[in-house]
Every structure is written in C-alpha cells, then in structure tokens.
Amino acid sequence: MQVNFRALSLSHKNAPVQIREIISLDEKAVHGILLKIKDFFNLNDTLILSTCNRTEVYYSHDQDISTELIKLIGLEKGLVDIVNYLEYFEVINDDRAAIRHLFRVSMGLEAQVVGDIQISNQIKRAYQASADLDMTGPFLHRLMHTVFFTNKRIVQETAFRDGAASLSYAAIELIESLTSNTFEPRILLIGVGEIGEDVAKNMVHLPSAKVKITNRTLSKAEPIAAEMGFEVVPFENCLDAMEEADVIVSSIQRSEPFITKELVKKFQINSYKLLVDLSVPRSIETSVEDVPGVILYNVDNIRSKASETLEKRLASVPRVEEIIEESIKEFFDWKKEMIASPTINKLKQSLEQIRQEEMARFMKNADKKEYAVIDKITKSMMQKVLKVPVVQLRAACQRDQAEEMIQIISDLFDLERVKTE
C-alpha cells in the first residue's frame, strides 16, 4: 500500500517570534499531542519537531488532516483561537516534497543560521519521542535512519558542518561586535539548557570577557563553569548579577517573561546594557528597550556577520543538496519496493499452501527420511518458481509500473483469495 507522507510547518520563514512562541511545544506538550494523534487518527508514522525556530508535524495519512492537527496543538496548548493562526502554517501534502523538507530541516539548510548543528540532536530527540510511543513504523524508521546516514555523509564529505556557526555562535558574534569598545565586558548567562550550554562553550571566542553563569539547578551550571573557567552565581543572586553585567544572555524556558521592563528600570545603567533573548517563548519583555541604555536582540533579529565559517558552509550547500537528492532517490527506491511486499508475501503463501496440500496428499505413507527429501526438493522448486515473478515485480517498481505487474501476478495466481498472516 502506498504511504502518503505529509508535513505541517510553522517556522521563522513564515511566522514571527511572537507567533512561534505561542505555538512552541515543550517535551510534555509533544508527548500529549502524540498521544492524541495516536488515539484520534491511529497514525503509525508521526514525528513532531519543536525548536526555537519551528514547530512541525510529519505524518503519514491518506488524507490532508493538517487543520485537525493544528486544532490538536491548540487543544494541548489551551488556545481556543488556534484557527486564527492557520495562515502561518505551511502545509506540504506532496510525498516527495514533504520528505525533501524533512531532509533539508534535518541537515540545517532551513535553519536561521545555515548549518546550525543543534538541529541534528533535536531531530534525534523528536524521533525518540515517537519511537517511545510506538508511533514509528517501518516507513518512518527507514526514513529517519536514511536522514541520520545522510547527516554523517555531509559531515564526512563536506565543510558544511565545519566551524562553530550556529544560532548560539551568531549571538557570540553579535556580543563581540557590540562590546568591541568595552574593556573586559561582563557577561551573565542565564540558563544552561541545550542552547545555553552551546553559548557557554562558544564564549571561548570572547577571551577578554568576564563570564558568569546561573541556572535554577546549580548542579547543571557547575560542571560547565568548571570546564570553561567561569564563575557560578546561585540563582537566588541572579538579580544582583544582572545589574552588574554589561551583557545578559537569557535562554531559560518560562511561560511568562523573566526579565521585565519594571525590573530593568531598577538597574543603574552607566553606559549600556545589552540583552540577548535566545528563548522561545521569549523570556525578556520587548518593552525593556524603552529603558534608556538598553539594547535588546531576540532569535529573530540576531544575524551572524559574514564570517569565513559561514562562507565555507554556503559554498558547500550545492554539494549538500546533491547528497540529499542521492539519499532521497535511494529512499524512494526502497519505498517503491514496499508496494510490492504484500503481493510477494501473498505469492509465497499461495505457493506454500499448494506445496503443503500436495505433500499431505502424496506423502501419507512416506517415512521420515523420504518425507525430508521430498520436502527439501519441493521447497527448492517453489523458490525457483518464485524467483522470476519477484524479480519482474521489483523491476516494475523501479519503472513505476508496479500496479500493472501486481494486477497481472494477482490474477495469474488468484492472490485475492490469499489472506496475509
């Protein structure tokens, strides 16, 4: 049976951050939506990806159920007006286009900073979340392992993943540019989740900076600080550290802003205070820019300056796209053969049934030795009879003529009467 793979995408390309943060899903929400999809639609191949730049659902279904899936997201998020956001979602119903989109996202071609390495781990976690709920059938398993193999090829064969260009590194480049006239700028990093940890590691590109990090869970901040030689600030002392800092980088997950205009107004700002918000939903109120001396950047307006690393990545894009197309072709060759599998199984069962009936009919009085010999001979004959139609059927799949050949073989061997186990 043909598998219709589809995609539903809300990303930085079609929705501003104020929309993305409303639709953004944490692990608990992803788990809840997957369960709802399983219960309501009985889908086997489903993947939900939610990052600071995108929320996407990939699924296999005979019909376009994108609107229903968006409503499920609204149900999980408690958004009664979710239909008002339909225009921000891109719906991809073409099978090959949806698969190509997944490859491009997974490789970092669709990232805000081209080649962002964080997406690879985010894709793996999304796949694991689906696998844990038994929502990854043979189709999605094969597809995802092809994606992972393609990623490995790109790392080994191109310069696309060389260097440290990522959203986190783009933030570091921004900080470096805006603090170039500040002697030993004081930087406070709030939150050391995946993005925060990546920011911390990229701080090596700011050797003159005085970096402090804080996190709700102190035990998560301490090993990172020890590795990088940073100072750890207990979370309860965060406000004092914010007032002292020239630069505050926030990458914490909260439903409401952590840094507000009222809070920032209390700070004594002698020259400037740069606030960098890498959180989705945003953790810094946009109105803080009304406070004199405050400069605010978020995930939408952080742009990496032209760098040698980024130039190398962009130069590698054509080869990356070639590798992706090679992988997609290989996957579709496998996908075509999937169409023939039920017919091949029915044919095997039909011939085995005939063999068993004839063995039972003519070998009633045979001893064990005679039975074993004839059993071996008839099995060998059956395999040779099977060989030609199976080879022809697989060849027809590659020529996109599978349906015709399936019908011929089904009629010839009367396979409609055979029930697959």
UniProtKB/TrEMBL annotation:
<feature type="binding site">
    <location>
        <begin position="116"/>
        <end position="118"/>
    </location>
    <ligand>
        <name>substrate</name>
    </ligand>
</feature>
<dbReference type="InterPro" id="IPR000343">
    <property type="entry name" value="4pyrrol_synth_GluRdtase"/>
</dbReference>
<comment type="similarity">
    <text>Belongs to the glutamyl-tRNA reductase family.</text>
</comment>
<feature type="domain" description="Quinate/shikimate 5-dehydrogenase/glutamyl-tRNA reductase">
    <location>
        <begin position="175"/>
        <end position="303"/>
    </location>
</feature>
<feature type="binding site">
    <location>
        <position position="122"/>
    </location>
    <ligand>
        <name>substrate</name>
    </ligand>
</feature>
<dbReference type="InterPro" id="IPR015895">
    <property type="entry name" value="4pyrrol_synth_GluRdtase_N"/>
</dbReference>
<dbReference type="InterPro" id="IPR036343">
    <property type="entry name" value="GluRdtase_N_sf"/>
</dbReference>
<keyword id="KW-0627">Porphyrin biosynthesis</keyword>
<dbReference type="Pfam" id="PF01488">
    <property type="entry name" value="Shikimate_DH"/>
</dbReference>
<protein>
    <recommendedName>
        <fullName>Glutamyl-tRNA reductase</fullName>
        <ecNumber>1.2.1.70</ecNumber>
    </recommendedName>
</protein>
<dbReference type="InterPro" id="IPR036453">
    <property type="entry name" value="GluRdtase_dimer_dom_sf"/>
</dbReference>
<comment type="subunit">
    <text>Homodimer.</text>
</comment>
<feature type="domain" description="Glutamyl-tRNA reductase N-terminal">
    <location>
        <begin position="9"/>
        <end position="158"/>
    </location>
</feature>
<keyword id="KW-0560">Oxidoreductase</keyword>
<feature type="active site" description="Nucleophile">
    <location>
        <position position="52"/>
    </location>
</feature>
<dbReference type="InterPro" id="IPR015896">
    <property type="entry name" value="4pyrrol_synth_GluRdtase_dimer"/>
</dbReference>
<dbReference type="Pfam" id="PF00745">
    <property type="entry name" value="GlutR_dimer"/>
</dbReference>
<keyword id="KW-0521">NADP</keyword>
<comment type="pathway">
    <text>Porphyrin-containing compound metabolism; protoporphyrin-IX biosynthesis; 5-aminolevulinate from L-glutamyl-tRNA(Glu): step 1/2.</text>
</comment>
<comment type="function">
    <text>Catalyzes the NADPH-dependent reduction of glutamyl-tRNA(Glu) to glutamate 1-semialdehyde (GSA).</text>
</comment>
<dbReference type="InterPro" id="IPR006151">
    <property type="entry name" value="Shikm_DH/Glu-tRNA_Rdtase"/>
</dbReference>
<dbReference type="Pfam" id="PF05201">
    <property type="entry name" value="GlutR_N"/>
</dbReference>
<feature type="binding site">
    <location>
        <begin position="51"/>
        <end position="54"/>
    </location>
    <ligand>
        <name>substrate</name>
    </ligand>
</feature>
<feature type="binding site">
    <location>
        <begin position="191"/>
        <end position="196"/>
    </location>
    <ligand>
        <name>NADP(+)</name>
    </ligand>
</feature>
<feature type="site" description="Important for activity">
    <location>
        <position position="101"/>
    </location>
</feature>
<dbReference type="InterPro" id="IPR036291">
    <property type="entry name" value="NAD(P)-bd_dom_sf"/>
</dbReference>
<feature type="domain" description="Tetrapyrrole biosynthesis glutamyl-tRNA reductase dimerisation">
    <location>
        <begin position="320"/>
        <end position="415"/>
    </location>
</feature>
